[in-house]
Each structure stands twice: as C-alpha cells, then as structure tokens.
Design a protein that fits this description.
This protein is an alpha/beta fold. It has 2 domains: 2-18 and 89-217, Rossmann fold, CATH 3.40.50; 20-82. 37% of the residues lie in helices and 13% in strands. The strands form 2 sheets. It has a 6-stranded parallel sheet with strand order 5-4-1-6-7-8, with helices on both faces. α1 packs across α3.
Length: 218
C-alpha cells in the first residue's frame, strides 16, 4: 500500500493515544463524589471513544434530557481536563510508527471528535502538537465525524487530496467518515471496541491488530 498514500491520519482516543485510564479516572471520581460505586476499568474502556455522553450513560444511566445531565457533564469534563495526561500515553509501538513516518517524510495528523479545549492540552502534554501536520478537533469544523467536513478540512491543511490519505480509527464513524471522502480506511482493532462491535460490518479497507502493523506499509 505504501506507493498509494502520502499521509496517515489518526483518530485520537483509542487509535493514536490510550486515553481510557484518565477518562475512567474522571468518571469514577465523579461517581464517588455522587456517592456511587466506582466501575471496573474494563467496563469503562469500550465507552472511551464515544465521549462524555457515553461515559455518563454508562455511569449514571442518563442522557442529555435528564435534569442533572448538564451539571454532571460539566463536572466530569472539569475533572478530566484537570487530569488529562495523568496516565494517558501513546499506544505501545505508536511512537516508533510516528518516528518511522517522520523519517520517511510521510505526513501524519489527527482527526478527532474530542473538543479542542481537551485535544490541544492533551496533544501538548504528549508532545504531539509540534509533530502533527494537522490536528482537527470536534469543533474545528461545523460538524464532527462521521460528517466529511473534518476529513476535508484536514486535507486542506496538509495540502493533499483525500485519495492520497489513509485514515485509521477504532469506531464505525471513523471508517464511515474516511470512506465518505474516498480515503483508504483502516480499523484499529486494538482500540476501544465493545463486545457488540463487529469491525467487519464497518467495511474498512484494512484492519490492524497492533500499531506496529503500520510499519509494514512504510
């Protein structure tokens, strides 16, 4: 595949970076503040790619229509923001992948549904901001993934056509977004998939079991 692409673009949570430990910490801290029992990490991990709504649904069984939702979401986000790089780290092998891309002069960037006020400090803390050719957050464009807008914006920033790009993600919306603009799509099976997720249903062009699988393309 190496002759067919000029850039690799990554989803953030569950693909490039393992953020689940700090998201779990924030949710369990909030649960304890509300007098509730903490949840096991393995129960929280599959929800980590899907934002505060999914995590609050898991922890409190409420949605955005609930009278307490806004206050709980605000408090959750504050706890998370205050602990955003407490245990978060690149997935095992991913730093070697990024270094190999850089050495081969292959552009790489990030397209995430995380809002910028969380994406930017996280990427700063992990020293990704200076390395990534683009960082597109949920609110960088009017619509988040699976809408094509973030994908097309990233292409503008890196000055490449979508057909020249590979997009790697761990959720159905990632593959849908990539396909919507004719990027080559890759399902990250090491990410935050739940037992109900069947990546075959996403119809990605490729799948990987470990970040180091990417090295085979470089």
């Amino acid at each position: 595949m190496k002759q067919h692409f000029s850039a690799i673009l990554f989803d953030l949570d569950g693909t490039l970076v393992n953020t689940a430990p700090d998201l779990a910490y924030a949710l369990n801290t909030l649960l304890k503040e509300e007098g509730m029992a903490a949840l096991p990490y393995q129960d929280i991990r599959p929800a980590a790619s899907h934002g505060s709504a999914a995590l609050l649904k898991l922890g409190f069984n409420i949605d955005s229509q609930h009278k307490d939702y806004s206050d709980l979401q605000q408090r959750f986000l504050q706890i998370y923001q205050d602990n955003i790089a407490r245990e978060t780290h690149l997935f095992d092998g991913m730093d070697e992948v990024l270094s190999a891309l850089e050495q081969a002069n292959i552009t790489w960037g990030i397209i995430t549904n995380k809002p910028a006020f969380l994406t930017e400090p996280l990427c700063d803390a992990l020293d990704l901001s200076r390395r990534a050719a683009c960082i597109v957050s949920a609110d960088t464009t009017p619509f988040p993934k699976p809408h094509p807008a973030p994908m097309l914006y990233a292409c503008e920033v890196i000055n490449l056509h979508a057909e020249q790009c590979v997009y790697i993600g761990d959720a159905a919306r990632d593959i849908e977004a990539g396909k919507s603009v004719n990027m080559t799509t890759v399902a990250a099976l090491y990410g935050y998939l739940s037992e109900n997720d069947n990546a075959d249903d996403w119809h990605a062009d490729f799948s990987i079991e470990h970040p180091s699988d990417i090295l085979e393309w470089i």
